[in-house]
């Protein structure tokens, strides 16, 4: 949906960039006075927080964001994207939301569901309001003050999520017209959220459509940071075609590091556009060298598809830009470490697990296969496995699992495939690749007889709404797929959003069809559906479930 933008002529940009370089000593002096040190948070800090210019987890572990941006507000049905970027190695996702000023407002229920999905996929969630993009130059853009009011309206949803959520007040909240006007409303928005009781780490974007090519954020970062009484504030620079030389990139990033001020590359592009050719290699290498986070733009769905990391939201169809980000030098797969809040992990652990055993295939259908392998070992502990499809000298992520089995779906009938497995630990270390297995899918498939059990639970409730989870287990000896799950609500509850399946509801009766990645339930396997719903005063759990017309046991 967004491409690199700069309305100022290239010649003027280069002139002003040169002036900024000449004035570098003045800018750095404003950014980093000799007596200034980044504030350490007070004892009230909880969860993700800033200390000595670094982003830390609640346990004090240094956390470096490695991930992508995802255009949720324009593609609310693409919830599988979070699982897909996680399977490719990301530890963070920046989620596009709307406060209702320019696009349809994302409701508290929807935001709660997004946070739940991030947590389920073990991703740190950066939430941003996109309506502010280009304020002062873009007539349709909203203000940071309006965005702050939106966040305050979400306080009940976000309270207690400080370990998992960073609040990015507004995307690129000033254009190229009078960018000096950025500073005061940015400070005011930060102060407004703190006065409302927000303890989350807050992220602020730069002016000049995020690229700060006139140096306003760089020159005023200290005053903005000092306005936050908690010290839990991080700056975000967006790097597109303005940053087409190594010197520009290293100068900017090092200025913040030298000042002890926290910074990440909150968006960046690599493909050339009409304004220039961004130097993504230097961006990624310098971020890795300095221990700074980066979040590539963007997963899929751009108006200009040159910036799509995955084509049509399909993780098996990475673009050249996607391959660069995930599998290239200093890319996500090689540098990302999962947040320890999702299961611990020693930040000093640098030993990779052993390679898993060669996978074996079972339950082969026309569109899926179940793989199993001998577990890997690790000096601390294996936390998961990545299944890859191997062919033509390349690898494509096919599935992820926390056990030593996985079902790969979405395959083509009568087609030969080769698969292998990697193991990973909590510190993000990845093993050598296992031996491979060759599998040919069936020419045709079918749905066998069904035996099943269903577990239903309410994950959380709030006035007028709730989040639920349904675990559907195939207790038979053959895979089930495709499938339809049926049940009824007794108290007028309605499903407002679901991941893992597509619901159809008539009064209290609900019918759920699978998503592509849950279309087959392997023998002895389970698929989990998550959802948010609306409710009245009573929220009785459904008592009867059926799968493909067969009644299921309840657990």
UniProtKB/TrEMBL annotation:
Gene3D superfamilies: 2.60.40.290, Glycosidases (3.20.20.80), Immunoglobulins (2.60.40.10)
Listed EC numbers: 3.2.1.4
Enzyme class: hydrolase
Ranges for domain CBM2: 445-555
Lineage top rank: taxon: Bacteria
Gene Ontology molecular function: any one: cellulase activity
Gene Ontology process terms (BP): cellulose catabolic process
The protein's name in its UniProt record: Endoglucanase
UniProt lineage: Bacteria, Bacillati, Actinomycetota, Actinomycetes, Kitasatosporales
Native species: Streptomyces pactum
């Amino acid at each position: 949906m967004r491409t690199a933008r700069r309305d100022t002529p290239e010649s003027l940009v280069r002139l002003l960039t040169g002036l900024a370089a000449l004035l570098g000593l003045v800018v750095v002096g404003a950014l980093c006075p000799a007596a200034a040190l980044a504030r350490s948070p007070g004892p009230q800090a909880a969860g993700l927080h800033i200390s000595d210019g670094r982003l830390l987890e609640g346990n004090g572990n240094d956390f470096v964001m490695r991930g992508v941006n995802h255009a949720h507000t324009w593609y609310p049905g693409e919830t599988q994207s979070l699982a897909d970027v996680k399977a490719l190695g990301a530890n963070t996702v920046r989620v596009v939301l709307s406060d209702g000023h320019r696009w349809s407002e994302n409701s508290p229920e929807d935001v709660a569901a997004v946070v739940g999905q991030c947590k389920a996929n073990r991703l740190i969630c950066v939430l941003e309001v996109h309506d502010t993009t280009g304020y002062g130059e873009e007539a349709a853009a909203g203000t940071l003050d309006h965005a702050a009011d939106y966040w305050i309206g979400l306080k009940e949803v976000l309270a207690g999520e400080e370990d998992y959520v960073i609040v990015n007040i507004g995307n690129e909240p000033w254009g190229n017209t009078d960018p000096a006007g950025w500073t005061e409303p940015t400070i005011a928005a930060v102060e407004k959220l703190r006065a409302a009781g927000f303890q989350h780490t807050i992220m602020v974007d730069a002016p000049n459509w995020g690229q700060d090519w006139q140096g306003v954020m760089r020159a005023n970062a200290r005053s903005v940071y000092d306005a936050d009484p908690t010290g839990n504030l991080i700056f975000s620079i967006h790097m597109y075609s303005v940053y087409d030389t190594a010197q520009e990139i290293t100068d900017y990033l090092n200025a913040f590091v030298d000042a002890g001020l926290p910074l990440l590359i909150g968006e960046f592009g690599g493909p050339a556009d009409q304004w220039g050719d961004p130097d993504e290699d230097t961006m990624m290498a310098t971020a890795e060298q300095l221990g700074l986070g980066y979040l590539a733009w963007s997963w899929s769905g751009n108006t200009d598809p040159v910036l799509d990391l995955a084509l049509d939201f399909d993780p098996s169809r990475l673009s050249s830009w996607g391959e660069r980000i995930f599998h290239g030098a200093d890319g996500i797969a090689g540098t990302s470490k999962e947040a320890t809040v999702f299961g611990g992990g020693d930040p000093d652990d640098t030993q990779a697990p052993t390679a898993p055993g060669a996978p074996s295939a079972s339950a082969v259908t026309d569109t899926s296969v179940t793989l199993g392998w001998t577990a890997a070992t690790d000096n601390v502990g294996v936390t998961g496995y990545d299944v890859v499809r191997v062919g033509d000298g390349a690898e494509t992520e096919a599935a992820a699992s926390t056990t030593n089995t996985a079902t790969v779906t979405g395959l083509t009938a009568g087609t030969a495939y080769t698969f292998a497995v990697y193991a990973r630990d909590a510190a993000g270390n990845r093993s050598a690749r296992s031996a491979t297995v060759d599998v040919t899918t069936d020419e045709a498939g079918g749905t066998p007889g069904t035996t099943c059990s269903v577990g239903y639970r309410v994950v959380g409730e709030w006035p007028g709404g709730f989040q639920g989870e349904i675990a559907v287990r195939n207790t038979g000896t053959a895979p089930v797929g495709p499938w339809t799950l049926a049940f009824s609500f007794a108290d007028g509850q309605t499903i407002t959003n679901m991941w893992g399946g597509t619901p159809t509801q008539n009064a209290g009766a609900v019918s759920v069809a699978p998503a592509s990645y849950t279309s087959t339930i392997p023998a002895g396997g389970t698929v989990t559906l998550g959802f948010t719903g609306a409710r009245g005063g009573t929220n009785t759990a459904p008592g009867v479930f059926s799968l493909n017309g067969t009644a299921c046991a309840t657990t």
